[in-house]
Amino acid sequence: MTNPDLVKKLSDTIHQIAQPGKGILAADESVATATKRLESVGVASTEENRRRYREMLFSTPGLGEYISGVILFDETLRQKDAKKTPFAEALKHQHILSGIKVDSGLINLDNTDEEKVTQGLDNLANRLQEYAALGACFAKWRNVYTISKTTPSERANIINAHNLARYAAICQNNGFVPIVEPEVLIDGDHNIQTSALKTTTVLKAVFEALKLHGVDLKYMILKPSMVISGKSASPRADIDTVAKETLSVLKETVPKEVPSINFLSGGQTPEESTAHLNRMHQLAGSTLPWNLSFSYGRALQDPALKAWAGKEENVEKAQRALFKRAKLNGLAAQGRYDPAMENSENTDFA
Ligand code: 13P
After folding, report:
1. Catalytic residue among 181, 245, 324, 327
2. Among 84, 164, 167, 284, which is least packed by CB within 10 angstroms?
3. Residue 25 gets which letter from DSSP?
4. Residue 267 Cα to ligand 1 middle (Å)
5. Ligand 1 in reach of 266 Cβ (< 6 A)
6. At 177, which helix (H) or strand (E)?
7. Residue 206 has what pLDDT?
């Protein structure tokens, strides 16, 4: 990365996002995923209801105290709040940067056991120019990997790593900080040691590909899954073990130049994902080479979604629920969370 204008843009974005005690709100659900989430609380997934839901989230008073960036979906970046202010501008008033999901989802990878490959490289540079004009300055691309005896296969691991690295290179050359998201799914009954081994293989392939494609590690954010037992494993590893194993895998695979690691929640409960992040900070103290924080979707949104259920009279209650999760995760990102804080029913906005 030698162009001084690009370097300034990328480093300003990193500087703003990777502030200690702040994280990212992932609100970039595709229309299909947003439909599932809204219908789960009895709300029809019209464009207007998706807009109303996102407005409820983004207008939460004080959200910017704990959230430094929000990832949006294409539709949302083009939408406005009730006062006709585009969402990216409204978020800016909260001191929050706007990001954009640029991958276009998953298809089966041929000649594998239904493993997935992520699409979306076509025309990416042009799309980024348009997204920049709409107010976005960082991007997200998500790969998924399934754990089984035979997966992730070498084929899926390599092709996904290269696509992710090409995306990251295109982003940086267009002034966007790429969020690099290799998600090792929690589905299955594997133990935590298996998760550690498979996550190590995936992350090694990703960093090899990033190097090959000339991606400058100083201007990217890694969004990994935590190293955790499969959802249907019994017993499942406790908080301490998840924190230790995750730190150990990250220390082995993630170069020190990477400025920030922001975890996805990946099906953990809101409380679990907060406790795991907090424990990592308590164990590591000030020894971490990277900022270590969150980029949660469901773990931040679920309590707010349930409280809202599509009704105007529930907006304040829902915003308090989001603010509470943002605040507790902000504290966890500094090792200052205590599970007893979960019981305080009234979280003040400030
Ligand atoms: P979850 O935290 O719900 O896993 O979502 C994060 C995300 O952005 C998935 O791509």
Report:
1. 181
2. 84
3. E
4. 8
5. yes
6. strand 177-184
7. 99
Local structure of residue 148 (DSSP, 8 states): S
Residues 14 and 324: beta-carbon distance below 8 Å: no
pLDDT tens digits along 131-157: 999 999 999 999 999 999 999 999 999
CA distance 8 to 232: 46
pTM tops 0.90, yes or no: yes
Protein residue closest via CA to atom 1 of ligand 1: 297
Question: 113: how many CB neighbours lie within 10 A of its CB?
Answer: 12
Active site residue 39: no
Structural contact between residues 100 and 131, judged by C-beta atoms closer than 8 angstroms:
yes
If phi > 0 it is left, if psi is from -120 to 50 it is alpha, else beta; for residue 285 that is left
- Residue showing tokens 């920049």: 132
d(CA 268, CA 93): 31
Whether residue 152 contacts residue 205, with contact meaning beta carbons closer than 8 Å, is answered with: no
Beta bridge partners of 177: 138
Is domain 4-343 given the CATH code 3.20.20.70 in the classification?
Answer: yes
Taking the C-alpha atoms of residue 34 and residue 38, their distance in angstroms, rounded to an integer, is 6
Query: What is the distance between the alpha carbons of residues 153 and 147, in angstroms, rounded to a whole number?
Result: 10
Q: Is 19 exposed, middle or buried (0-12, 13-18, 19+ CB in 10 A)?
A: middle
Residue type, 324: K
- What is the bridge-based pairing of β-strands 116-118 and 106-108? antiparallel
